[in-house]
């Protein structure tokens, strides 16, 4: 078993993958916890899909793809906010419009440039953790330090803001700045994760570890710490699955983390479906009752 | 910068989606008073409070606390939103929520000081919630949750307190604690403004009442405000206020 784990690590590319897997597992879970408690899961999806055109343009002109992707992510959130505030269109509809448009543009651009470049669309869509370069490891590490330091230093303000934004604003906290800062942290995190899980599935690594931890511990910083542990276990396991079974790393990581969530959902001491008597006693769902009554009326 | 500063609201106009929500509101409040804000549903009671604190945009109007705008002195205000504005499934304990009241006093990048923790613990003690410190906020009753938010407001050590419908869904014990502490704050020279759900609540507990229906109908002592003429202007001819308050 130990050989099975250690043997691949003699290769430099596997060492790089391991560093990225651990880093991404931590920052996705920490930042994603804010998305979960603020019910902004869709925003995580929107930002990640919107990265593609920036990434493609940066690749085409030879710039750093992390920078290009980050700029595209920020532009997409600005446009979403702009549509939402300047028209009667609701925020979720604005997200749907913007992220699909950006995604379509990104896929188109990459398809065009991949004809004469060594760039594989699939790697960005579904992740290719075994293919990270040392520059990407360096960029991921820089982003991780920035993100974790920001969350650590602004923890009490972000907690107040995400729990009760009106109360925080009334206490004089600069809530619009905090909100923009949070968006930037999310964009940075997604950029750092795109090589590991790909832009389509990064939402899973943002939301699922935090959601799993949320079923097990009561405080936000505990959700972040346990979530980070779950995120690391998932991304490292996914990396090995990718290595041994030649799977795309994104789906492998997501399948592991989803399995862990399922376990917590069924077995959590406080909320588990199987372990909590309260959850079990509600044996008949309203939907089933309505369907049953429809049939009764028919006879 | 004394605590005993007066509030002055001048010519406040607020629109909500192109509908005029508040029209030409002018009033002044002396310090050390407990003010109840009353009016029918949709009268703009919460809107008034939010506009005073700068939480929503205003068309015109100024709100002074002493000789400076209130919005420039938000470190001296505490606001407790309506219960429905809060996500009660949020992963936070009672202690986490009360400490939020110390965030502004603590300052950026700093950790909570021993003083802050003592102030927070005393605030919890004062509302009778000390033993629930480690309880998840969602595991409390409505009244207990309201008392935790009162403790958070107390921990802010503010001079001007706003409560938006604090009596909705709370038990008798909590209502008594809320009124007792509101009275103590007013006696200490603080200003306490409370938006109320309906007229059935004990209006006699308030020093001043503010009757609102898109515009200011009346402000004064309960006897001055509760005239048939004012009630008809606020609630229309259909509601018999006197049976509602009985």
From TrEMBL, chain A:
Broad class of the protein's primary localization: membrane
Protein location: Cell membrane; Membrane
Segments traversing the membrane: 18-37, 57-82, 94-113, 141-161, 173-192, 198-217, 224-245, 251-274
Coiled coil: none
Keyword Membrane: yes
Gene3D superfamilies membership: ABC transporter involved in vitamin B12 uptake, BtuC
InterPro entries: ABC_BtuC-like, ABC_TroCD
Keyword set includes Heme: no
Keywords annotated in UniProt: Membrane, Transmembrane, Transmembrane helix, Transport
One Gene Ontology cellular component: ATP-binding cassette (ABC) transporter complex
Membrane topology: Multi-pass membrane protein
GO biological process: cellular response to iron ion; response to zinc ion; transmembrane transport
Family: Belongs to the ABC-3 integral membrane protein family.
UniProt-listed PANTHER family: ABC-TRANSPORTER METAL-BINDING PROTEIN, IRON TRANSPORT SYSTEM MEMBRANE PROTEIN HI_0360-RELATED
Protein's name in the database: Metal ABC transporter permease
Species name: Oscillatoriales cyanobacterium SpSt-418
Automatic annotation (TrEMBL), chain B:
Domain of life from the UniProt record: Bacteria
Protein biosynthesis among keywords: no
Keywords from the UniProt entry: ATP-binding, Nucleotide-binding, Transport
PROSITE patterns the record matches: ABC_TRANSPORTER_1 (PS00211), ABC_TRANSPORTER_2 (PS50893)
GO molecular function terms noted in the UniProt entry: ATP binding; ATP hydrolysis activity
InterPro entries the record matches: AAA+_ATPase (IPR003593), ABC_transporter-like_ATP-bd (IPR003439), ABC_transporter-like_CS (IPR017871), Metal_Ion_Import_ABC (IPR050153), P-loop_NTPase (IPR027417)
Signal peptide limits: none
Similarity section: Belongs to the ABC transporter superfamily.
The protein's name: Metal ABC transporter ATP-binding protein
């Amino acid at each position: 078993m130990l050989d099975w784990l250690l043997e691949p690590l003699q290769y430099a590319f596997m060492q790089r993958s391991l560093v990225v897997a651990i880093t991404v597992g931590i920052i996705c879970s920490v930042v994603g916890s804010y998305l979960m408690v603020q019910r902004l899961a869709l925003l995580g999806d929107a930002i990640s899909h919107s990265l593609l055109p920036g990434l493609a343009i940066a690749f085409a002109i030879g710039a750093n793809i992390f920078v290009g992707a980050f700029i595209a992510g920020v532009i997409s959130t600005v446009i979403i906010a702009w549509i939402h505030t300047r028209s009667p269109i609701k925020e979720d509809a604005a997200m749907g419009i913007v992220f699909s448009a950006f995604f379509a543009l990104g896929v188109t651009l990459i398809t065009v440039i991949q004809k004469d470049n060594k760039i594989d669309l699939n790697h960005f869509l579904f992740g290719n953790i075994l293919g990270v370069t040392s520059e990407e490891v360096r960029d991921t590490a820089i982003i991780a330090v920035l993100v974790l330091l920001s969350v650590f230093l602004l923890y009490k303000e972000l907690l107040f803001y995400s729990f009760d934004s009106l109360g925080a604003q009334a206490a004089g906290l600069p809530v619009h700045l905090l909100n923009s800062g949070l968006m930037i942290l999310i964009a940075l995190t997604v950029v750092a994760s795109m090589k590991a899980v790909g832009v389509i599935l990064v939402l899973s690594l943002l939301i699922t570890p935090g959601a799993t931890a949320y079923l097990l511990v009561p405080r936000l910083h505990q959700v972040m710490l346990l979530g980070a542990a779950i995120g690391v276990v998932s991304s490292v396991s996914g990396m090995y699955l990718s290595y041994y079974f030649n799977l795309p790393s994104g789906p492998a990581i997501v399948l592991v983390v989803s399995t862990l969530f399922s376990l917590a959902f069924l077995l959590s001491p406080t909320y588990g479906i199987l372990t909590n008597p309260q959850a079990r006693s509600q044996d008949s769902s309203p939907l089933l009752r309505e369907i049953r009554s429809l049939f009764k009326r028919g006879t | 910068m004394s605590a005993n500063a007066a509030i002055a609201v001048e010519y406040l106009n607020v629109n909500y989606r192109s509908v005029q929500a508040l029209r030409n509101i002018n009033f002044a409040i002396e310090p050390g008073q407990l003010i109840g804000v009353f009016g029918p549903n949709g009268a703009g009671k919460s809107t008034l409070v939010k506009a005073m604190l700068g939480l929503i945009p205003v068309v015109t109007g100024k709100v002074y606390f002493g000789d400076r705008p209130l919005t420039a002195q938000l470190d001296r205000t505490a606001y407790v939103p309506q219960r429905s504005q809060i996500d009660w499934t949020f992963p936070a304990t009672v202690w986490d929520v009360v400490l939020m009241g110390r965030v502004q006093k603590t300052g950026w990048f700093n950790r909570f000081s021993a003083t802050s923790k003592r102030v927070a613990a005393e605030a919890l003690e004062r509302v009778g919630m000390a033993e629930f410190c480690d309880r998840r906020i969602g595991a409390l009753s409505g009244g207990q949750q309201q008392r935790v938010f009162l403790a958070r407001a107390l921990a802010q050590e503010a001079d001007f307190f706003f409560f938006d419908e604090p009596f909705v869904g709370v038990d008798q014990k909590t209502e008594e604690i809320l009124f007792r502490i509101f009275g103590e704050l007013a006696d200490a020279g603080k200003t306490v403004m409370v938006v109320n759900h309906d007229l059935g609540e004990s209006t006699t507990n308030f020093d001043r009442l503010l009757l609102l229906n898109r515009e200011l109908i009346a402000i004064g002592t309960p006897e001055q405000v509760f005239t048939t003429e004012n009630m008809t202007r606020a609630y229309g001819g259909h509601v018999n206020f006197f049976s509602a308050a009985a």
